[in-house]
Every structure is written in C-alpha cells, then in structure tokens.
C-alpha cells in the first residue's frame, strides 16, 4: 500500500492504495465518484477522461499513485457550487449531444480542455480534438454542435 | 396521403430538451457497475482460449487458495442451478438447437466461453485468482468458415456440436407463388434470361459487434424476499422470465432492474451466460455479487451481428422493370442459437422486396452453427442486410441499363397513391410517399451539381474521384403484432404495457414496459402524456426498467417503444380521462354528456364551470365525495397489441471522395429524408438518425469482426475493432416528410433503426459509383482503403482481410519506459 | 482491466532511479507517461514485480537549446514538446508528427522519451527522430552514453538501451529553415498509422537541396528512406520530380501484413505518402 494525497473536485483526500490501482478505479471505488466511467481497456474510448493538474487525461491510463499530490477534476466537480451547470454541460443538453450518456462525462471533460486550448475551434479542430473519445449513439453530429454552441460559434441545436 | 405536419398542439412535435440529461451531464448516474452493496463479492470469468475443445480437467486449487477468494466454481459445481440460455424463436419446428448451459462442464464451443468463475472480495483479487485456474483442454476440429460449415454434414467437415451431426440449424423459406402473394420466381428468371436482364451477385454481410459504450455489468442481491438482479440490459422483463423459466425460481421471487443502461443497439437484448452465472453464484453463497466485463470480454463474448453470405438473382425486363427476386442466404449463428438467433435473417425475409412492386419473390435462409461467438440482433436485425442487398442490386440494374439509379428505383417503387399496398412478401404497407422523400433528399443533397462535378472529375482523370450513392429503404418495425409472431413460431407476444398513476399532488407517474437505454423515453413519453392529459411536461415522471414497478412489459428493441409502447400509453391516458369523467360530472353537478375535456380540464359545455384533471385526482384521493359505485382511483393501465408492423421509409444520398492512389474513402456529403410519420420530439428523432447513420456507415467503411484460422477473434479490442471517431465522420443534412401511420393514434413510425438500415448501401453504392470507370462493380465491406485500391488495380471486390493484428501492446517490449 | 500487483517506487533523481533499476533488474519496468505500458499491465500481458516511475524526476522535463541541437528531456510530454517554440523553429518535423500522435489526452500524459523507448515501429516519433538524425542520451551505472539514431532502434519494441540504463534526453540537431510534413495514413483517426512518412526538406530556390525521410511502420523499426532521400536531392520540387524520387521510398523495407493492409499495399502507400510529404514539406503540397 502506498499513501497518496490529492485534491479531487476541490476536496482534499488521502488514502492508502495498492500501487496497481488505476486513477479511475480510485475515483470510483474509493471516492464513489462513479460519474467517471470505464468504457474500454485499451485507452481508446476516453469515457474515463478527467482533468489532472488542469489537463485532460484518461484516468484508466494513470495509476492513482502517479496522481499523488495532484489536483483532479471530474464531471462531478464541473458544475458550480450552487449547482449551476458548466457552459459545456449546458451546451450538451441544449444541443442533444448525448443519448445513453455513457461517453458523456469523458466527452464533456475533453471538450472543456479543448476549448481552454482553443476557444473558437473550427469544426475540423473540434472533430480532431475529440478523436480520443468514442460515442456510439450520437454519430457525433450533435456533439460537434454542442462544442460549437459552448464556444459561441453556433446557435443551439436544430432538429 | 402525404400531409404537411399540422401545427403542433402543445407538446407533440416540440423539440424539448431531454429530462434524462441533467443526471447524465453531471455524473449523477446509476450504471450497474456503480452499484455497491454491503459484503458484495466480485466475479471473474475463466474463459476458453480455444474455439472448440473438450474440457478434460480443471484444477481450481491454487485459485481457491488466493487472497480473499471465497469460491471457485466450474460448470459441474453449479450444475442445473445455472439454468440455461434460451432461444425464443425456433424458426422451424425441427430447428437444430444445441443445449446452451451458461458454463459448460464438458466442452467449449467458442473462444471466450466461460469454464470457471472465481468469487473474491475484490474484483482485483478475483482476477488474480482467475489467472491461477488451470484448465486442460483437448482441442477439437472447429467449424469456422461459414460456407464450409454449411456443408460439413455432407463431407465430414468440422461440426460445431459433433453430437448434432450437422451445422445446419434451420432452413427457412418463403416463396410468393407458394404463399399466393406473387408469381413464380424461377419462371421470372427464366423469362429474363431469354429476353430481359438477369443480375446475379453474391454479397458478404461481414460480422459486426454492437459495441455499446457501457460494458455489460450485472449485480445480484439474493438477500431479502426477492432476488434482485441489476443488469445492463435492454430486456429486464424478458430476462426475468428466462431466469424463472430455466432455474425454477418462481418469477414472483425475482426482481430485475435495468438502471441507467449505456446503449444497446440490440447487443443487450440477450439473456447472457454471465447473468445466469452471477444469479447462480449469488444464490449459492447467499451474498450479493457483481460481474462487470472488460471491453475485451465484451467484444469477445457479447453477441455479434450480421454475418451472412447473400446469393441474389434479380430478373428484370429490358427496360428495367423488376420481374422477380430470388434470395439465398447463409447466416452464421455462431456457437449457439441466441435468444432471437435464427430469427434475425427471417426478419429480413420480408424486406428484400423493400419499397418495390416485385411480382415474384423467393427467400431462403440456411442458418448455420459455427464455433464462433453467437450472433443475434444488431441495430436493424435482418433488415439492414436485406436493404443492402436490394439497394446494391438496384444500382447494378441501373448500371446495366445505363440509367440513373433513382430513375430505375422510381420505375419500380410503390406510388404514393397506391397505399395501402400489400407486398409480394405479404405485408400491408399502410402509408408512405417515396416520391416526396426522394425529391426532398435530392434537393438537400444538390444531386445535379454533384453529378456534374463527378463528370468533370472523371473527364479530368482526377486522382480523387467522386461517387454518389443512393439508397431508399423501408423497414418493418414496431415489433410486433402478437398473432404474426405466433404464426412465425416466436415464443412471445409483441404487445406493450403502460400505466398512468394520478398522484394526489397533481403529479403524474407513467409506467412503461419499454426499457430505455439512451432513446429518451422519459422525455418523449412525458410529452405524449402532457399533451393528451393537459398537464405540465415537468409534472410527468416516467418510470421504467424495474420489474417491481413496471411489472409488465416486453422491453425495447426493434424500434417498438414509441409505436407500440407509446400507443399503450395513449390508451392508458384515455382511460384515465374516461374514469375521471363521471367524477368530474359529479363534482361539477353536471351531466357527463355535457362535459368536454381539453387542455387538462373538464368543462361544462356552454358555461365557465370546469375542473382540472389534477383536481379530480386530488378529490379521488380524498374520496370524500365520489359518485356511488365509482372506485377511488382514476389510475389506469393499458396493454396494446399492434395490428400491423410499422413502415417508416426514406431516401438517403451519399457522396464520397475516393483517393484512387491510396484507396482512402472520405465522406463528402450525406443527405437523407426520412418519413417516420408524425414526430413527437424532432430533436430526439434527429439524434436517432445521426447515430444510426454512423453505425451504418461504419459497416460500410470500417467495422469488421475478424477471426483467424485458429478461431481467435483478432479484432478483440478497440485497437482493432474500428469504431469511427468524430474525426472520421461528417455533419449530416436531415429532413422529414410526413405520411402519418394509419395503425396507431399518434401516427408515428419507428426511427431507431432507420439510419442504420439505409446508410450502409448508400455508402457502398457511392464507393462503387466512384470506381465504375475503373471497371469496378463491387467492393466488399468494409470498403477499406486496401480493398478499394486492390479493386481499382486488380479488379474483383478487394479480397479478404488479413487475419492478424499489429502487436502494439505486445508484452515483449524491451526497455519501454 | 486490473494490473497484477506490483511494488512501486518513484525516485526523484536519475541516480535514485538507476539504483532502483540495479536493485530490481529483470523484475522491474520503468514507467514514464505510462500511455503504452499501462494498457499492457491492465491486460496482464506483462506483470512486473516493480514499477519504477520517472514522473517525479523534474530534471528530465523540458526542451533546452543545446547550441547546434535541441535537447528534449525524456519526460517532457508530447503536448509540451509539440507546443514548444524552439521545436517549431528548429525541429518542425517533430511538432508536425506530434499533432498526429494518439489523441489529446494521451499527448498530455505520454512522454517523448517514453514513446521512443517503447519502440513501437508504428509509433509516430521514431521516424521523425530518425530522419532528423537525433542522438539518444542514456544513463546507466557507468555514466551516460550517446546512441546515434541509426543504432537506437534494434527491433520490434527493442532499443539499444541496456536493462540497467534509462533514456534521459533526446538531442535533435537543429533544422532551422527546413520544411516539414508528416503524412499519416489511417483508417480511423485514433489508430496507429498503417504507414506514415516523416519528411524534412531544405530548399534552394525551387530545388530540393536535401531531404530527410523517415518511415513509420514499414518494418520492425522506424526506417530511413535513404534511396529516396538520395534520389530527391537536387530534384526540382515538382510533382513529377518528387514522384520520381519518392518511387524509391519502399526500397529495403519489410513492412508487416495485418488487418489494415498487406506488405505490398504498404510499400505502395510509402511511395505515395513520401511524394505527398516531400511536396508538402517543400511548400508545394
């Protein structure tokens, strides 16, 4: 067991973990942060995307011990303390950018990172920026609209 | 029949944002794998690496000694307590159906089959111990190739189940001459050979994997009076039935809950071995257990889809009127006959004639067992295969005639004034307007401009050629009229159930037997109820997916939720209003005949007197002042059995750019106009179409489950089973025409499978269209760059996929850091 | 999905890391960003007893101007290398390749040295590092040594880093003013390349004065397309001139045959992609 200390969604946490424990397992099993999900075992799907020290990472591809001392933000820490949705969350709802919702936490977290780096991305930049996140429901059409909407480059969804 | 959609009244037709989304975008979800119970134990499966082998010994002693291991069970240990995996649709009376134990004890029939289960206090420890289980196998010859397997009983080839003596599970046939629905196809072909056109083709429907994003997970809690199973399933009601029917546990002692379920596409309509094993282990130990598959396990063992060879003969007159179609399928069932199983190709049987007026038709499928993962319904289930075949053939016919592919289709399709129309397959299409949908699709697409660009690129000899693909489609969905299912020997009905509970505070609970996993039922059903009952959208709560709450239902698949489940809901709502009416009359001191119901209120005709239905609900709750003989409830339920299938249709147009130097295919434009009758929520509908399109496009271009000669699934992870990303797809142009269904009150048609059904042939037709100048008339799916390149350079349809994966995650790397 | 159990150590200096490596030797795996190693561990294709994490060694991060070369710390993330202005100015080919490498999340976590040490012939950094004539600096018990790029890649997943050594730095000779392009051919965006070509070109007027070309996934290691480089030197940067030179791109290669393409197809792709990469690098693409 290795002792780790980190900040997750603004909360300081400390635990003894097995070194083999993945960050995503730590979030889900130790902290009950089940909003972050596991969709694959080859780090292709991006469903487990969180922010580690301000940048998006696939939390299945980070050991919890590697995150020691770090700051993690998950989908559960994105909304304001008053429950106000983050603009990207709001945009996904507004543009129907989700169906089953399983990929959504990862999509939203990656979108937040993408827009931090490039606040007014082209459609191509959005599509490339999300290449590490798989969705099986939406065909990506409305996910792209949601990112554009959050970036303020389009109106809301149209059917 | 086509009507412009009437002005929306209230909620119907409104692009409501979804109720479901708040929890999904904030991570406040309840996926099965999120559930943790006190003392819960975790399962890990030990799976066969061989496609076909006798199990000669299993040594579990080392695993049992593992840290925090509670138990290790083999098939022999669990015996009959495992129950069995059932096939609900023996398509012929003498169907050959191998027994399917969730965990066999003597012989494995596909690579990935479970041979032992480890139970431990943590998932990690269960996995650790599973590595220590030693299984001795004696390999048996494996039936792998579909065509060879179909012949094995004649030539001593490998049998998937040696005791059965054959790999052929069933031969199912429909002939329009025999059925009296049309002429003799052989005669039509013979005539066309003399004085017409005969097109003979063989197409491959490659094996696909549904690949829902949420891996399957099951939790079983045997404590309490009912054994509760949470499962990532599309079919909680069917699952409960199967658990009870095969384990002997009374149905009333089983509760199945499908909590938030992350996609299905047919892939979660199975009764899985893993669910059965978890149920047996929980009962044996008396402790809650959980099993969550890895993605690799999911790709390996969750059922696959498609996998057919299609031999097709189309007969036509010299001017392009089709006179007959003959279809001869080989369908790969995999190692066992799954729950729908051999019914999947049969669902396609009625759809090869598509939107056309063919005078003669014959269909035959030979369903074949092999030592591969079982196959079952995947989005469209039989209908995409059928649509692909006929839409490819119509393009071939057009090419033969030198005519525009849309023109040839129009010559043969059912005209809008001919509805209702009884097809050569014996179905009655209620409504449609193929002309209108096609005209709109062409307009959105810019058909003529793209054809001009194509001609220009051809004449210039551009290295990047443009191809334009056409696909029209219809499908039978809204599964299904119970009587029809009965006549096809299906083991259940096709009705759906709904219940409306009027709460005393004015809120409304709606219970549906449909079980959503991304479709947006909570929103769309709320709209229907709000509209009809005249209550605020926000006040309607939709409950589903729990057999104790939704005690009766047949779940979600086959684009049935709205057209069957929605109609049940309409009828339950209407009953509420009917039950409320005498109460309203009593309270308003008026005659029931003088009451009218509108906007949620009963009002007395010609007066300003009235009362909201929610007020009546409160009054009924108090029950202080009810008319004599009226029960103290206006809650109502309805079970609706559809009278017919439901026939959405559409025209899809696709333009691709083919890089003739590399074979790379890029989507350029995609426009489609679907007619799905009246629309409840256009936002949800467009989402269904977008997602369906990409799944269909993915079959055309990217996805293929590949086995090697050892029966190993080579595409066993997302590294090799290629799901498209946002960067591989484009934005789509969608529109709708509206020919309301005449067989349900709302005039709706199913939309869940439409995009998938139409898009695959549209894309392949576009690829082939681009390559016609190179003498190419087919490219096998998926149309990989390599296949396209080979088709251009060496003819043929591009060859087989090499059955080897690149070793990016090889364990042998040296100083990786 | 759950790795086999291991012990973990996170040294804060190269010396500590080398000591840990000396102590645990064969039983240890070094983890850098972990983007290739962790999938291997999750699928239990490998089960080391020890994992030595280089992530706490700050001295291994960053891009430094070394005069005639850039020194890239082995633990610098792909993202940071790709964004570095020095890299843009002096090793444009590397930043071009990084934009195609995996996905944003992996680029945030994966490291330049880690990916090169992993030596997947389909990895996106080998070909550009090789083409630019990089030098790999490794440190072991006996001190540091420099390995020229041509000697670094030995075989599939195998480099000339010894088991008691750690890759600390990659030195990339400055190629200021060279045009660069990375042509990556995939079926799906998140795939490893079926074939990719890294090309850097120094132009003199309309003529290609010098070309450096690396091939990804055309053999068991990244390869230099030397025959093509020679054929291109002195050619006019026209479609025809470049195509003639690029025709030699697959010479001496031994590409794999797999799901995504057979060897002959890959050889063909190499010539097409080389032509396109060189033209793009020459500003004619």
UniProtKB/TrEMBL annotation, chain A:
Keyword Membrane listed: no
SUPFAM superfamilies, alphabetized: 2Fe-2S ferredoxin-like (SSF54292), CO dehydrogenase ISP C-domain like (SSF47741)
Pathway: Alkaloid degradation; nicotine degradation
Transmembrane segments: none
GO molecular function: 2 iron, 2 sulfur cluster binding; metal ion binding; oxidoreductase activity
Listed Pfam families: Fer2, Fer2_2
This protein's record includes keyword Acetylation: no
Keywords, in A-Z order: 2Fe-2S, Iron, Iron-sulfur, Metal-binding, Oxidoreductase
Protein's UniProt name: (2Fe-2S)-binding protein
High-level lineage: Bacteria, Bacillati, Actinomycetota, Actinomycetes, Propionibacteriales
UniProtKB/TrEMBL annotation, chain B:
Aldehyde oxidase/xanthine dehydrogenase a/b hammerhead domain residues: 26-141
InterPro entries for this protein: Ald_Oxase/Xan_DH_a/b (IPR000674), Ald_Oxase/Xan_DH_a/b_sf (IPR036856), Ald_Oxase/xanthine_DH-like (IPR016208), AldOxase/xan_DH_MoCoBD1 (IPR008274), AldOxase/xan_DH_MoCoBD2 (IPR046867), AldOxase/xan_DH_Mopterin-bd_sf (IPR037165)
SMART domains, A to Z: Ald_Xan_dh_C (SM01008)
Superkingdom to which the source organism belongs: Bacteria
Keyword Oxidoreductase: yes
Cofactor: Mo-molybdopterin cytosine dinucleotide
Keyword terms of this UniProt record: Molybdenum, Oxidoreductase
Molecular function terms from GO: iron ion binding; oxidoreductase activity
Region (Disordered): 1-25, 794-817
SUPFAM superfamilies, sorted: CO dehydrogenase molybdoprotein N-domain-like, Molybdenum cofactor-binding domain
Biased composition (Basic and acidic residues): 12-23
Keyword Hydrolase: no
This protein's name: Xanthine dehydrogenase family protein
Organism whose genome encodes this protein: Nocardioides albidus
Automatic annotation (TrEMBL), chain C:
Biased composition, class Low complexity, residue ranges: 237-253
UniProt GO MF annotations: FAD binding; oxidoreductase activity
Residues of the FAD-binding PCMH-type domain: 1-177
Keywords from the UniProt entry: FAD, Flavoprotein, Oxidoreductase
Gene3D superfamilies: 3.30.465.10, CO dehydrogenase flavoprotein, C-terminal domain, Uridine Diphospho-n-acetylenolpyruvylglucosamine Reductase, domain 2
Keyword Magnesium belongs to the record: no
PANTHER family, per database record: XANTHINE DEHYDROGENASE SUBUNIT C-RELATED
The protein's name: Xanthine dehydrogenase family protein subunit M
Species: Nocardioides albidus
